[in-house]
Target: PHP domain-containing protein
Amino acid sequence: MADHGRGQVLRFPGARAAPAPGGTWAELHVHSASSFLFGASHVVALVAGAHRLGIEALAITDTNGLYGARRLAEAANECGLGTIYGAELTLDQGLGSIVVIARSLLGFTRLSAAISAGQLAGAKGAPVYDLNALSAAAHEGEWAILTGCPVAGEAAYDSDAIHDRMDRLAELFGRTPLHAELVDHRLPEDGPRKAAVHAVAERWRLPVVATNAVRYAAPRNARLAATLTALRRRANLDTAVGELPPAPAAHLRSAAEMRILMSRYPEAVASAVDLARSSVIDLRKLRPQLPDFEVPAGHTTDSYLRHLAEEGCTRRYGPRTDPAAEAAWKQLDYELSVITDMGMPGYFLICWDITRFATEQGIWCQGRGSAASSVVCYALGITSVDALKHGLLLVANLITYQPRLSVRDSARARLSDGPDQRDDPPYSPRATRPRGQHPRRRTLPRRAAPYTATPFGNPCRRDGTNPPANRRNYAGRVGHTRRPLGPARRQR
Model:
């Protein structure tokens, strides 16, 4: 066939071989519900989802804060998931946002200090970070920095802007801590954006890592994420439709899914796993280093705290031999034993020293917080409230506090006078309790509710069988308390 001067015909590349199944994966960029109006899943749900998908390690990187750090440590400890801590910092001067990952406990404390400094320098919801301070901290080797959430819309096709931003980040933070972040949500703009980011990474010789910029645990949470986006933009779902995510793609993925998404950049998946493994931190090892408290000769911090507390207890309640003071001395001994076991005598001595100095100088001073609701603080003069007299003892819940939600602990705290207090177990109809000690509960007549609602909203009998078709409309949905109509009302 004659050549009519046309150019060479370009052939489509052959089909790429599918990645081999298996492998490991670690997610380095996750927003929890603590990222207000951005993340749509709580930390516990994210950890459960990661465990279900076989993810090796999970990072919580909330916006301008370490809000989910403690919850991540609690939840991940139960399932053996590796924990990584970081935050997404919003920078000014057109640099957008970056993800800072702490690679050690020292890096975690420095990241916390940098966030605090930025929050103090700015306004609520708009921190201002010192770029020079961030650059100096990054060069100390305790942080890994990712290039942050991907830009969306037409900006994703502006390769010049992407190149300019990446160049500025590389000049600011250097090549060692900076990692180019590739995100693929299966959107049209993902391909050009990944190509532009990868090109800059090759030019600067930056390591490339893959993330999914997670906002929720599973695709079913995407509708909630869209609602939060509309609220953040002060709009409803109809008017904010152009700003909503076009697909439920910002969720946790398995290793097999990520290897398919990043089949053109397989090194990005391997680099992400390597970075995650080197950044796993056990937050339980992070303990505050309190200053040493000098005690008189012949005393330790434990013995000196007991000496002061017993003097104060005698002054407040009476001597140990007084029967009227028996409850106070029993509570004092219990609290001192807990304080000693937790290694916190120095903390209480420091608080006592501050309040003593303030009192001597005529400065009004009052201890506050849950620890103030204790016999020890009342005896030491840290507080002037007699928690024993008013039934406000919370010290058992405070000092023996295991990392749990403080709101839940406050709700479950039991106000009692003795050290043998325990949280009541959840009510169960099968629990054996002494007659007359069951909690009060509202019960319906035996004939009132022959049908119950299943978790899927379909009514069924108590024995598990389905009701007649003409009775289905009398059973409510989950949580519905409407009773079936009686014979008299049905006749109407």
